[in-house]
Specification:
The radius of gyration is 18 Å and the shape is globular. The chain has 2 domains: 3-59, Roll (Spermidine Synthase, Chain: A, domain 2), CATH 2.30.140.10; 63-279, Vaccinia Virus protein VP39 (Rossmann fold), CATH 3.40.50.150. 31% of the residues lie in helices and 32% in strands. The protein has helices at 63-77, 93-99, 114-123, 125-128, 144-150, 170-173, 178-187, 205-216, 252-261, 271-279, and strands at residues 4-6, 9-13, 19-32, 37-43, 47-52, 55-59, 83-88, 106-111, 137-141, 156-162, 188-197, 221-229, 234-242. The chain has 288 residues and is an alpha/beta fold. The strands form 2 sheets. A 7-stranded mixed β-sheet has the order 9-8-7-10-11-13-12, with helices on both faces. Strands 1-2-3-4-5-6 form a 6-stranded antiparallel β-sheet. Bound molecules: S-adenosylmethionine.
């Protein structure tokens, strides 16, 4: 799906033939990097926004819903997340969420697109909020596929996959495969946790089911949850996987205590939200 602009509107791809029209106030970046078409704009209703290949990735108004939902359940489920790997996550907001936890000693972010990361540093301060400069953060510009083949084994406590959608550009497709998850598991400690955003199970049910099934073939515990993201035009699905830790077992009080002890403050995610997220099941796929 390619992005189309009508005057000062942006047409955001939602499904294969469904779009949202969003009014643009300012355009800061409209370029093609080596890997993707990138736009950084102000949207009238959502504020500063990153759009890649016609898909809204994050907006100032609701990125906290997306990023807290991606990062906080996995981090809270792990009893002591010290070493964390982020694959993708160009805006730096996933890194920001990871670094909120005072247990973290090292957070490595691997993104394929160095040009995009530089643009994010410059224009997306509202999202990264300085996370790129945190002394615990290490930014590597390389393909996540290559990184998992070379990285130290049994090293990470939590791995967070924040890639472009599985039905989006080619660069991220293979990073949702069974082979990729099996290689990533080798980088994780025995009680490690992996979480991935998984696009929309409503508009792309087959792709979504494949991701869940790929993770099930590699990990013993696989749980699904979702959060409504207004600027995406759908509820974004997430899948969390581990051999040891089960997010379903966490009580609201336990989660609130963990967040408090680690000095984490959120706008969206807390103990009650954790419980609701994991109790609400999966969105039914759309079969016309
Ligand atoms: N919030 C997002 C969404 O809506 O899909 C995803 C966030 S983020 C901007 C996606 C990042 O994944 C981009 O910065 C892109 O460069 C990165 N990416 C895509 N393929 C990659 C790969 N093979 N290795 C590492 N990073 C990759």
């Amino acid at each position: 799906m390619s992005e189309v602009r009508l005057g000062l509107n942006i047409i955001q791809g939602v499904g294969t033939s469904t779009s949202m029209i969003m009014k643009v106030k300012n355009v800061y970046v409209a370029t093609k990097t080596k890997y993707q078409e990138a736009q950084i704009v102000d949207l009238e209703e959502f504020g500063r926004a990153l759009i890649l290949d016609g898909f809204v990735q994050s907006t100032e108004a609701d990125e906290f819903l997306y990023h807290e939902s991606l990062v906080q359940p996995a981090m809270s489920t792990h009893p002591n997340p010290a070493r964390v790997l982020v694959i993708g996550g160009g805006e730096g907001a996933t890194l920001r969420e990871v670094l909120k936890h005072n247990t973290v000693v090292e957070a490595v972010m691997v993104d394929i697109d160095g040009e995009l990361v530089e643009l994010a540093k410059k224009y997306l301060e509202v999202m990264h909020r300085g996370s790129f400069n945190d002394p615990r953060a290490k930014i590597l510009i390389m393909d996540g596929l290559k990184y998992v083949e070379e990285a130290p084994q049994k090293y990470y406590d939590v791995v967070i996959s924040d890639l472009t959608d599985p039905y989006g550009p080619e660069i991220s497709k293979l990073l949702y495969s069974t082979e990729f998850y099996a290689k990533t598991k080798k980088l994780m400690k025995d009680d490690g946790i992996l979480v991935t955003q998984a696009g929309s199970s409503f508009f792309f049910p087959k792709t979504y089911e494949e991701i869940v099934s790929n993770l099930r073939s590699v990990f013993k515990i696989v749980r699904e949850y979702w959060t409504w993201i207004p600027s995406f035009g759908y509820a974004c699905n997430y899948v969390i996987a581990s051999d040891k830790h089960d997010p379903l077992k966490l009580t609201p009080n336990y989660v609130d205590e963990v967040l408090k002890n680690r000095g984490v403050t959120n706008k969206y995610y807390d103990g009650r939200r954790h419980q609701v997220m994991f109790a609400s099941g999966v969105i039914i796929g759309h079969k016309p």
